[in-house]
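Hey, resending since the last one bounced:
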Amino acid sequence: MTGRAQRVTLASGEEEWTFEPGDARVAEGLVSLQKKGLGGFVSLRRREDGRVVVSRASGASTVERTNGPMPWREAVAAIEVFARALAERERRTASVTALGPADFVVGPTAHLRDDALIAEMLSEDFAPKAPPARYSPPEQLEGAPWDDAARRYVLGLVAYKLIAGSLPFAGEGLRRDLDERATRGAPPFVEAVATSLKPGGQSLVL
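The structure tokens again:
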């Protein structure tokens, strides 16, 4: 047992979380989160012994592992899921932790992983990990505490990565990348990407 649920990772990468009968409402609450794109808990079943099993979608296909730009319709659909999930999280809790590329799962079920929120719902301890520097806002790299604005900044980087296929200033070296992001806005998409978007798509991301 780990915390309030027994957790098993299947060969497919999906997870099964088994709760005791007394925690059925907690399990139901996890599944309800996915309606807002949070957590990745996609289904629930009750066993004959009264235990409740919740299935969690694989978290392997993260934004960090995408290669090249996604088709814009798929990218926009995923970004909309992430935006709704962030808004719901801000509504649910005042606690804020770091957010990194591993939290943004693009498929097969797009969702914001956000293990910190899940741990809070289950009254478990959680030790957040600092995201890679390329996915961190300049202020947080300087030691500022994470807040909702910082998490939205990361969402902007993720949106850029999904549509453009790379982060802003990628390929210029980490130090140059961070310096440019701290002093300049993100560069426009290359023409082939920009012209594939709906009108206003580029300005929304930038």
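Residues 169 and 176 are 8 Å apart (CA to CA).

Sorry for the duplicate.
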